[in-house]
């Protein structure tokens, strides 16, 4: 299993609906955003999973794969009805796939060159007046060395992550 | 001796922490900025085909992929021993200008403007881009649009916004279509408006922050960067120039391939990041700065009308040489102005949509150095290959590393001025962070996951016992 290409043509804007547009364009209503560095082993698990979701071929889903969350993707987020962020999380004592709903932006989070999911969703709201439903799926990450393959420990959590993503892709109540 | 440790620096990628050492009298005796650099990447490259290196190295970092893409392609050009088609050279330049715009926009509008608009002593929970939105929504929106513009050009040329593998040894993969050229032209009026607005705003702040600028990384040093054949501002080709704090040229016309003759790399036990220095002056006396401030200090002129007008004002403000790192912000805005003008010139060039954009060749040299000016400063890619073009050795000297000595000096200067005793008020933390942020360092070597750690401040007494800790 590789940790997401991050470097293949169009890998950052792929999926049935093609390139993600800015606010106002017609686009698939569900946006799956995988982020991380595919060269830093498990850090790329979000990218790898987003690529996989893209391969499921759902017409209502578009995929965005980026190394980090930048302010300008707020425009893409604003066109979505539901957003699923997929990220790596350094493994703790009881590693597991976690799913959480973004309730509100967390203004106190430090802003780096990259934003947090809360931050970029908050920007979509502030700048474009859009507040899509947003979820974050995190997968435990164990190794961050220079290598493209996922570690066996992280790969073992992929089935759980796929299950979580499939649930989140379905409309509420189904 | 007491040690105050601040870790990691917020709004930066990678692991970074600051240690401030106090003597028994509570005065600063030393200050260190520690970083985990992306050690090991060069080894990761060994055995890879030189043709793949631009695409691979662009993935080092999500912040400045274009810089690595272009420096790597240029190293590959040398290994193929080709002169790339003129249109390919112009398109690469255009992408580099676009990267300058989008990167500087992020630095100014998103990372630094909160400190400048809301104040260093404002509530840290609100001192961010949302705070700027509340204070000046139009400015924040324009900042996002400027970011989008830079990324849009990168996407139009490279086919994608992040990590385009478009530039390759010998040229570029795709030409610019007339349709895409028109799209770029359409963006320019709005961009020019935003650049003017930001410059006018900063010129008002110059007086307001005059006292801070005096102690905000304000010291004599050398400055290094590329200049064109005419001595003007250059970001893609040209030769290396070193100038001193009086803007006197120390060394000029250096072939970038000869960088090792002039640049040494020192190592300190307390940091993974190396300390490049100008060899003839030794270490650490050969401290030099790179990036926007350095480029403006070494250049004779910017080479475009509006940017040259701004450069004159900038030099009046700085009274000649800009020695305060606070003025990096100002220099970035002038570089945005110059980049917009240069892009406007390029899209009007009748050759810009020419379809001949790539020279094909095999391996003709076993070594090549590629140099560009990344947003944060001069970037070197140096490769050695075998007869089949497989990498045998790679050496990358990234911009942020070259400012290492200056960043440490800046932290020390700010700490000296503001810290007295074993307390670190919030506002002082902010100023130290902002002092580093003036260089807009890119420490993407560490994973983004670690880069989101909260800031932690640890305070140790003279015997090394932790006496206080703050996290935010």
Protein traits:
heterodimer; A: 174 residues; alpha/beta; 6-stranded mixed β-sheet; 21% strand; B: 472 residues; alpha+beta; 4-stranded mixed β-sheet; 16 helices
Task: Describe the fold and architecture.
The complex is a heterodimer of chains A (174) and B (472). Chain A has 174 residues and is an alpha/beta fold. Helix content of chain A is 25%, strand content 21%. Chain A has a six-stranded mixed beta sheet, covered by helices on one side. Chain A is globular. The relative contact order of chain A is 0.22. Mean pLDDT of chain A is 81; it is low at 5-25. Chain B is of the alpha+beta class. Chain B has helices spanning 41-45, 53-57, 65-80, 86-118, 129-135, 137-158, 178-208, 210-214, 259-262, 292-298, 305-318, 328-347, 399-402, 404-418, 426-437, 448-451, and strands at residues 2-7, 16-22, 28-35, 167-168, 171-172, 222-227, 239-243, 249-254, 263-266, 275-278, 288-289, 367-374, 377-385, 391-397, 456-460, 466-471. In chain B, strands 3-2-1-15-16 form a five-stranded antiparallel beta sheet, covered by helices on one side. Chain B has a four-stranded mixed beta sheet with strand order 8-7-6-11. Chain B starts with a strand and ends with a strand. Classes of the chains: A alpha/beta (174), B alpha+beta (472).
Secondary-structure map:
The complex is a heterodimer of chains A (174) and B (472).
Chain A: E1 13-14, E2 30-35, H1 45-55, E3 61-66, H2 74-78, E4 82-90, E5 98-101, H3 117-128, E6 133-141, H4 152-155, H5 158-169
Parallel strand pairs in A: 2-3, 2-4, 4-6
Antiparallel strand pairs in A: 1-3, 5-6
Chain B: E1 2-7, E2 16-22, E3 28-35, H1 41-45, H2 53-57, H3 65-80, H4 86-118, H5 129-135, H6 137-158, E4 167-168, E5 171-172, H7 178-208, H8 210-214, E6 222-227, E7 239-243, E8 249-254, H9 259-262, E9 263-266, E10 275-278, E11 288-289, H10 292-298, H11 305-318, H12 328-347, E12 367-374, E13 377-385, E14 391-397, H13 399-402, H14 404-418, H15 426-437, H16 448-451, E15 456-460, E16 466-471
Parallel strand pairs in B: 6-11
Antiparallel strand pairs in B: 1-2, 1-15, 2-3, 4-5, 6-7, 7-8, 9-10, 12-13, 13-14, 15-16
């Amino acid at each position: 299993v590789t940790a997401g290409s991050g470097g293949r043509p169009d890998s950052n804007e792929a999926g049935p609906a093609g390139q993600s547009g800015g606010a106002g364009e017609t686009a698939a209503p569900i946006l799956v955003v995988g982020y991380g560095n595919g060269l830093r082993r498990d850090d790329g698990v979000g990218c790898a999973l987003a690529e996989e979701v893209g391969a499921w071929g759902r017409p209502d889903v578009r995929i965005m794969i980026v190394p980090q969350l930048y302010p300008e993707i707020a425009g893409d987020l604003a066109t979505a009805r539901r957003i699923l962020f997929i990220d790596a999380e350094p493994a703790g004592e009881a590693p597991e796939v976690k799913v959480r709903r973004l309730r509100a932006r967390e203004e106190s989070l430090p802003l780096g060159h990259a934003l947090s999911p809360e931050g970029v969703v908050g920007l979509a709201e502030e700048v474009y007046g859009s507040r899509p439903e947003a979820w974050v799926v995190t997968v435990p990450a164990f190794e961050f060395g220079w290598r493209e393959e996922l570690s066996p420990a992280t790969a073992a959590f992929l089935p759980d992550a796929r299950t979580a993503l499939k649930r989140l892709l379905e409309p509420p109540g189904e | 001796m007491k040690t105050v440790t601040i870790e990691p620096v917020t709004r930066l990628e990678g692991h970074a922490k600051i240690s401030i050492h106090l003597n028994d009298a509570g005065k600063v005796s030393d200050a260190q900025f520690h970083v985990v650099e992306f050690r090991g990447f060069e080894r990761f490259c060994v055995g890879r085909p030189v043709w793949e290196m631009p695409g691979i190295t662009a993935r080092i970092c999500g912040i400045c992929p274009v810089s690595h893409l272009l420096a790597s392609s240029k190293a590959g050009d040398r290994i193929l021993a080709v002169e790339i088609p003129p249109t390919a050279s112009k398109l690469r330049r255009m992408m580099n200008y676009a990267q300058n715009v989008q990167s500087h926009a992020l630095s100014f509008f998103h990372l630094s403007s909160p400190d400048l608009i809301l104040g260093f002593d404002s509530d840290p929970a609100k001192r961010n881009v949302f705070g700027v939105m509340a204070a000046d929504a139009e400015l924040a929106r324009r900042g996002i649009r400027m970011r989008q513009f830079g990324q849009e050009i990168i996407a139009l040329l490279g086919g994608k916004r992040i990590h385009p593998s478009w530039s390759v040894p010998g040229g570029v993969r795709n030409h610019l279509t007339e349709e895409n050229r028109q799209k770029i032209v359409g963006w320019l009026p709005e961009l020019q408006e935003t650049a003017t607005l930001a410059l006018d705003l900063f010129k008002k702040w110059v007086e307001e922050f005059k006292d801070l600028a005096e102690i905000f990384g304000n010291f004599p040093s050398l400055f290094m960067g590329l200049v064109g054949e005419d001595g003007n501002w250059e970001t893609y080709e040209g030769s290396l120039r070193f100038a001193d704090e009086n803007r006197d040229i120390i060394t000029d016309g250096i072939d970038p391939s000869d960088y090792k003759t002039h640049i040494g790399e020192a190592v300190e036990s307390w940091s993974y990041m190396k300390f490049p220095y100008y060899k003839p002056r030794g270490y650490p006396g050969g401290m030099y700065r790179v990036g926007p401030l350095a480029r403006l200090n070494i250049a004779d002129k910017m080479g475009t009308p509006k940017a040259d007008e701004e450069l004159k004002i900038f030099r009046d403000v700085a009274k000649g040489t800009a020695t305060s790192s606070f003025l990096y912000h100002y220099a970035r805005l002038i570089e945005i102005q110059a980049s917009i003008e240069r892009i406007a010139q390029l899209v009007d060039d009748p050759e810009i949509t020419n379809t001949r954009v790539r020279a094909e060749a095999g391996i003709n040299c076993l070594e090549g150095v590629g140099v560009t000016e990344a947003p944060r400063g001069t970037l070197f890619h140096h490769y050695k290959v075998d007869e089949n073009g497989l990498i045998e050795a790679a050496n990358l000297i990234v911009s942020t590393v070259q400012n290492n000595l200056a960043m440490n000096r800046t932290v020390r200067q700010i700490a000296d001025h503001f810290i007295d005793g074993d307390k670190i008020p919030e506002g002082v933390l902010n100023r130290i962070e902002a002092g580093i942020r003036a260089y807009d360092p890119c420490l993407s070597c560490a994973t983004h996951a670690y880069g989101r750690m909260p800031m932690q401040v640890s305070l140790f007494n003279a015997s090394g016992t932790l006496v206080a800790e703050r996290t935010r």
